[in-house]
Task: structure prediction
Amino acid sequence: MNHLYIHIPFCHRRCSYCDFNTYANLEHRIEAYVAALCAELHMLAEGAFPGGPLPTRAEQRPSPEADALPPTIFLGGGTPTMLSLDQLERVLTAASAIVPLERAEITSEANPGTVLGRDYLRGLRALGVNRLSMGVQSLHDSTLRVLGRIHSADEARRSYEEAREAGFDNINLDFIFGLPGQTQAQWEATLDTIIAWGVDHFSLYSLILEEGTPLYAQVTAGRIRLPEDDATAAMYEAAMERLGAAGYTHYEISNWARESVGPPGALFPERACAHNLAYWLNSDYLAAGAGAHGHRYPRRYHNILGVDDYIAAVGGGRLPCAEWITLTPGDLRAETMLMGLRLSAGVGEAHFAARCGLPLDAAYSDTLAELAAQGLIVRHQERVRLTPRGRMLGNQVFQRFV
Amino acid sequence: MTSQNYIRNICIIAHIDHGKTTLSDRLLEMTSTISQRERRDQLLDGMDLERERGITIKAKAVRMMYTAKDGHSYQINLIDTPGHVDFALEVSRSIAACDGALLVVDAAQGIEAQTLANLYLALEHDLAIIPVVNKIDLPGAHPEEVAEEIEKVIGIPAEEAIMASAKEGIGVPEILEAIVARIPPPRGNAQQPARALIFDSHYDPYKGVIAYVRVVDGTFTARDRVLFMGTAAHAETLELGVFRPAMTPLPALSTGEVGYIATGLKTVEECQVGDTITLAETPAEMPLPGYRPAKPMVFAGLYPVDSNAYPELRDALEKLKLNDAALSFTPESSAALGFGFRCGFLGLLHMEIVRERLEREYNLDLLITAPSVEYQVLRTDGEILTVSNPSEMPDLGQIAAIEEPVVLISVIAPSRYIGAIMELVTTRRGTFETMEYLDPTRVLLKYRMPLAEIVIDFFYDQLKSRTQGYASLDYTLAGYQEADLVKLDLLVNQAPVDALSLIVHRDFAYQRGRDLVERLRQLIPRQMFEVPIQAAIGSKVIARETVRAMRKDVLAKCYGGDITRKRKLLEKQKEGKKRMKMVGNVEIPQEAFMAILSLNEDARED
Result:
């Protein structure tokens, strides 16, 4: 398997907008969790797969675009940097039986408030982690407090610089726009500031108000007001404009990578996140850890959510899978489209045909013609991609495939 | 079989919430018709909807056997009556089937208009009245005053009123004894040709229409050939019997008895409330008085959101119609909505009930156009049209005059609300007729008002809200009168949407137009392009709003772990779209077609 996601469900504190599978105040379970995680990775490496033996290679339908990606491991969370270097080393060693570490893009998420100084960062780098993704979210301390973040803007900046000094040359920073009280001027100032930092990669997300989060409760109760849709649209446009002018390639709806000289005709910028590209190319990937989702067509699974339940399941010698489903060829086609269209490169006809086993037009010629007539997509050089308008109204396009 | 002398047929007259249902349940328990364990709350209200709304839509009749203190066993038939102003027609037949009535009055609230209207109906049919002052145990009760009020209104001495709390069982034994002692046995002649009054019916898929009857003369037995004197329908008594409270077959129903006759008929239209059943072999000479076919007052277009569901809607309406003689429907088509039906209802509540049943029981997604009454339009060429669909209104130049139905309304309320009522009625084009003090604090007000102002405009709710719930309302049709009415058209993205047209008085047209476009602006979601919304009379635009184009609608995040959830989100978004109607190239949600009603609901909350 080329791609592996590993979930670390621990946080110092839950952020007010977060609906991920993560828990605060469970630090005392980290050691047991790491042991369980290594055991799960071991089972997966031995070929175990939720729902029984893996489908044969013939059913996997590789695509040239997906096959060009390097192997990847992504440590997500939660906060993976709550693990000690020793614990992380054990996890990566176990993972290496699935994905060879040499040549691999190995990303770890990091909370800029928990990065433990230069030694820890150097150690992380030495373990083979070569990409860091830090959730900065905002440069305004008052907003960071509303979001429940444990760091200040200054600390985030310091963590970023320390990571650079520790040898990380591929760093992503996450920011959110459309935040409570955020103005256009504030956001544009933020963009100008972070562009000057020389970051390799940005994920800029329009705030998603997730049901069940503290922020959701506060907004629905009217205690906090979010900017209107039109205002966040303007923020998004400002991001595209300013990052574009500063030499960043907007390669996915919410992702930008610093332009660099890559091989001629490359579909994606060199600093694009290869692991996430695998998702958007609807590739197969394994996943380990509580609540993690894995996908190997025609099957998708997710693991048990709770930390204790997860540990207990693995302790019982079984895969900690909570549920798996069988995807239909129709699901595969739909997902290949709605994931692929997120990419600026769009969906290649050859990729679609390889992945789904039939030509793009055999599946969607009418839909694509209608969307093109509406000015939402364009077909060019055997690829389908969103127009700038289609990118603003992506859901109107994606809906047509579900 | 009970001798005619030991039969008592009664109903309960009460205002909504005054305790009719609770008292019914107590009577059933105390006569062991149902055990306490079997008892569900509000047993007589069968349908979910009725239960939710706390009202009774279909009258039912339960037979109880009661051994009185005189040692005789009496058959008491309790006929339940509907309680909302929309169903005033059904109530009169139920009352006609009885010989006596329990007048249940809330000890805190006193007599209300609805109660009074039904009470007068009961007195008209010579029913013996037993006043029951209920809820005497509740704080705020002033039972003596209420008993005196009853004496003042109908002349029954205050001492004869029974003080009760149905909830606590207080006074219920006294009520049972009073039924035996004060209510006369049924009149009627067992030797005459058989006649039975239909006071309700329901459709049963196995037995056909079940008629709820009071046998007035003679005897009916199973397998009789019968004739419906009003509709001239013929049928056979497949089964007859009584409700105890479940349907219990009997060999015969005799003079004075109340029960059911299974007719095998396929529609309730052939077996209408108020009609007389007689034996086909030996028919009675005269039908019983009081038959008139059910007449809808409010009309609205009903359309499936998904045009392919038209046959399902037709089937569903046909099925509902089996049980609902007051519901009418004829196919119509709308340029905006495609094929649907123009439906007639007794009132807005009836319309809501039908819509909810269609959506719930038949799983249909429906659009209802703005409700309308039936207008008489005199054209310049002398032809008279009946128009219940605003989009069928002729062009302004072809109209010589429009007449609208008017009603006489009676409102009873404490006198301190006279000003508020007067003000409301005036804004609804009502004109004052009479005012009468029922006692020093309570008045009966009568007005003449356009029917449209009452039935399609939540007048009843407004009246309630402006009088803290004290006022109550009854109305009777009082002919047609000319009015300065205009058709207000709504244009969405420059194209008139026929289903949004409505007929309004010229004086209110501008305000309505402005309110309506504003409301539609809120209800119509942003589309991928800008959508102007205009209100117009003829070719003259009187109001305009704009739904701005959608600027951004895209999931910010979608990674591997998200995909199942994000797909569901997209599916939900798509599903929401499906529930909208594509009119031209604009997606209009269901609620927009009811905008005129929600406008008034907003006003109601003011």
The two ends of chain B are 59 Å apart (CA to CA).
